[in-house]
Amino acid sequence: MGKTKHTGPIKLPSRPDPKLWVSKMPFGLGKVKPHHIRDTLKVMAENRDNLPYAYRILTQGVCDGCALGVSGLYDQTLAGPHVCTTRLNLLRLNTMPAIKPAVLHADIDELRRMDSAALRKLGRLPYPLIRRKGERSFSRLSWDEALDMIAARIRAIDPKQLAFYLTARGITNESYYAAAKVARFLGTNNIDNASRICHSPSKTALKQSVGIGASSCSYKDWIGTDVLVFWGSVAANNQPVSTKYMYAAKRKGTRIIVINPYREPAMDGYWVPSIAESALFGTRIADDFYQVNIGGDIAFMHGVMKHWFDMEAAQPGSAIDHAFVREHAGGYEALRAHVLRQDWAQLERSSGLSRARMTEFAELLAASKSGVFVWSMGLTQHRFGTDNISQVANLALLRGFLGREHCGLMPIRGHSGVQGSGEMGADPFSLPGGEFKGMDIPRIEGIWGFRLPKWQGDIVGVTLENAVLPDDHERKLKLFYTSGGNFLETMPDPDFVRTCLESVDVRVHQDIVLNTSTLADAREAVIVLPAMTRYEQPGGGTSTSTERMVYFSPEIEGPRIGEARAEWQIYCDLAMRVYPDRAKAVTFKSAYALRAEIALAAPNYDGIQHLKSKGDVFQWGGAWLCEGGVCPTKDGRGRLLPIELPELRKPEGHFYITSRRGKQFNSMIYSDKDPFNAADRYDVLMHPNDGAKHDIKEGDAVVLYNSCGTFHGRARFASIATGNLELYWPECNALLPKKVYEPHAGIPEYNTAVVMERADTFHALKDSRYVEKRIAELDLESEDEDHSIVK
Q1: What region holds the Molybdopterin dinucleotide-binding domain (predicted)?
Q2: DSSP conformation letters of 288-317
Q3: pLDDT score of 326 more than 70
């Protein structure tokens, strides 16, 4: 942990800098870009029935969107107000009225005709619901009936047949903590959260490389660092307020580099709406793009390090910070030997970049005295995601970019609540205060007042698979309790996921709205429990940002929805119904009492018990973790790890695909058009050369297929690395393989290989022998790959 404290927000320069302008045409007229003013007016119109409440949420509450951590309209990075369209789009979830009874209790097929966007617009869930096997509609339950029914089912099954899952949709630390405690109170370690499908490899890799499970630095370190690298992260789209930090960094002379297969328009130039100069003329963000192949990052980083070691041979000290490595990192010689064995031709094939480009980036980093590496799902959502992040950590350790100002490793979070999920113990591998392995279990048991189950819980993907096990299997999933989440739209192979969901005896959906997963059948019953938002929670709630700022969001005066209850209270009430004789262990008089226990159970969160008013915040760990290069590992040193190059072979005519986000928040889609490139949800982004090679013109109907499924879309030419395709998520999920997980962190594989053909060719040649032959060619490439399932 660091001793240096965060020094608070800084001011932006007052004078404009025309060198950074995207265009002299005011407001980017004629360019494809977000229309912030129009979108803001649209949000105002949507919330016109509740504008005073909407205003109070924006000015008093902590953002329930991404994890930048905006409290009211302000944060700890830059002075002045901040607001973004992502937050505005989510606003209606908090202000809309309840679903009308006639719609809520309509025939299930009427509801199933709607997609999740239409279901969301119906309104909030007003009271508990049930739909038993064979019933055509939901019927109303009392809270007593619902909780007693769930409790009776829990008592009747083995705890290994019970599982919990929590999304990151506005969920507070208090809810994560209560769920983590209740799950263990009920005897199960099957509890997981949304980080499993976004940043679980980040935590795993950072733990093994430098001993931490969170960002080592603060957003302020972006502003004035020599080089700021975004690796597989489109922060301008997913964390829009961060563009303000990028603007400030550019004004300080920071070079911004983007490493991504697609030259993301949002990172090329952006019109920051809360900065007059940028709102008028835009801001050039990225100084350079390195367009790696999908899955080619490890090879690219090997090339960077290989050139560094060549530089060192010619002139010692020209690339490696030897003093830092000597004092603070182990494994240097083993890493050096491993990297020098790499073949340049293979690194070029795998990365998709020339040796010259790799050495260019290596020399940029070598000449930089400071650097911050930021990454997101472009690095983590691979079957080798942990290795990707370990390789980034190798670069930082070799250059000494750790534990000091303007330096650090930052897995930027896309949800406001997800950083706290594992830290509160809502994770099969973690408890409050640390990981199960190596944890002082008796200490937690003393605080919690009961014995913990000691068996290893399952990650959520395996939990879903357990639903199709034989009935007499000890891990057959019989009761699945989810707080938010929509697995039909977030997991690979939606058809298989539907089979899993419908094979569970009882599913409980604790949520604020309906989604498509809620409408799936169950073997016995689907129970729906209405939850409060974070702004309705009595006693307020807290959330942890990417930079480890723990913010207090107060209860905000306004209308309340029917019988909705605070999420943490629902968990505790259920536990008391299951084992009333031991209820004292899970009884909290208030949110304040709950936070007091969090401070005891999770030592990093000592201070959370004092958060009680609007604007209250503290940063656990100080401004920089690993301050001075000292890591919280057994020997206080980081570990340089030799990382193997993934085998990425694909036959001629095949492509790698990855997913991208448009105008959406997680799986919640707000527009069919991507505001940054005008593509629609079924466009396939490809390089023009790939189109010409396959006689595909822009706008042509194309078919992508593999052994998992088929996708029909239209060709859209874009600046993307050749041999790579980008599709929108979750529309492309039918192509993604099921049961393929990263072996260390358990994240599903969200990238795969496909055959792409013109639609008329595909349909003209579509006979079983032809398709099977093409798919067989695809499958050959992965025969030797490790498709491990985490158990």
Answers
A1: 656-753
A2: EEE-PPTT-HHHHHHHHHHHHHHHHHHSTT
A3: yes
CATH of the domain spanning 656-781, picked from 3.20.20.140, 3.40.50.360, 2.40.40.20, 2.60.120.10: 2.40.40.20
Residues contacting residue 570 through CB under 8 Å, at least 6 positions apart: 510, 529, 531
Tokens representing 440 are 């002082």
pLDDT at 193: 95
Q: Compute the distance between CA of residue 444 and CA of residue 248 in angstroms, rounded to an integer.
A: 43
Whole-number Å distance between alpha carbons of 550 and 538: 18
Nearest one of 459, 455, 575, 556 to 178, comparing CA atoms: 575
Q: Is the dihedral of CA 25, 31, 36, 37 positive or negative?
A: positive
Each residue's pLDDT tens digit, 451-507: 999 999 999 999 999 999 999 999 999 999 999 999 999 999 999 999 999 999 999
Is the model's pLDDT at 785 over the cut of 70?
A: no
pLDDT band at 86 (very low <50, low <70, confident <90, very high): confident
Stretch 224-233: mean pLDDT: 97
Outline where DSSP puts E strands in 384-427: 408-411
Mean pLDDT calculated for residue range 659-667: 86
User: Using omega within 30 degrees of 0 as the cis cutoff, is the peptide bond preceding 730 cis?
Assistant: yes
Distance of alpha carbon 345 from alpha carbon 355, whole angstroms? 8
Q: What is the mean pLDDT of the chain?
A: 94
Residue 542, beta-bridge partner list: 552
Spell out the SS3 assignment of 619-678.
Answer: ECCCCCCCHHHCCCCCCCCEECCCCCCCCCCCCCCEEEEEEECCCEECCEECCCECCCCC
Q: List the one residue out of 504, 476, 500 whose CA is nearest residue 487.
A: 500
Q: How many CB atoms lie within 10 A of CB 482?
A: 22
Q: Looking at the predicted structure, is the pLDDT value of residue 223 above 80?
A: yes
Query: From CA 20, how far away is CA 162, in angstroms rounded?
Result: 55
Cβ pair 754, 730 in contact under 8 A: no
Q: Are 459 and 790 in contact (CB under 8 A)?
A: yes
Give the start-to-end residue ranges of the domains of the chain.
Answer: 128-198+416-610, 201-412, 656-781
Percentages (nearest 5) of helix, strand, coil residues in the chain: 40, 15, 45
Q: What is the DSSP letter of 456?
A: P
Closest CA to 132 of 506, 479, 503, 499: 506
Backbone angles phi, psi at 771, to 5 degrees: -65, -45
State pLDDT tens for residues 336-345: 999 999 999 9
Domains 128-198+416-610 and 201-412 share a fold: no
Q: For residues 227 and 257, give the distance between their C-alpha atoms in angstroms, rounded to a whole number.
A: 7
| Nearest 10 degrees: Cα torsion 714, 720, 724, 730 | -60
Amino acid code (one letter) for 704:
L
- pLDDT tens-digit series, residues 403-426: 999 999 999 998 888 899 999 999
* Nearest alpha carbon to residue 614 among 531, 542, 546, 547: 542
- Find out whether 625 and 727 touch, Cβ atoms under 8 Å: no
Q: What is the pTM of this model?
A: 0.95
Q: What is the pLDDT of residues 744-753, one digit of tens each?
A: 999 999 999 9
Which CATH code of 3.40.228.10, 3.30.70.100, 3.30.420.10, 3.50.50.60 fits the domain covering 201-412?
A: 3.40.228.10
Neighbours of 328 (CB within 10 A): 21
**pLDDT in the model for residue 784:** 44
Q: Are 243 and 283 in contact (CB under 8 A)?
A: yes
788 pLDDT band, cuts 50/70/90, is very low
Q: Which CATH architecture has domain 128-198+416-610?
A: 3-Layer(aba) Sandwich (3.40)
DSSP lists the bridge partners of residue 163 as: 480
CB 374 within 8 A of CB 410: yes
pLDDT in tens, 593-617: 999 999 999 999 999 999 999 999 9
432 and 424 Cβ atoms separated by less than 8 Å: yes
> Is 269 within 8 Å of 279 (Cβ atoms)?
no
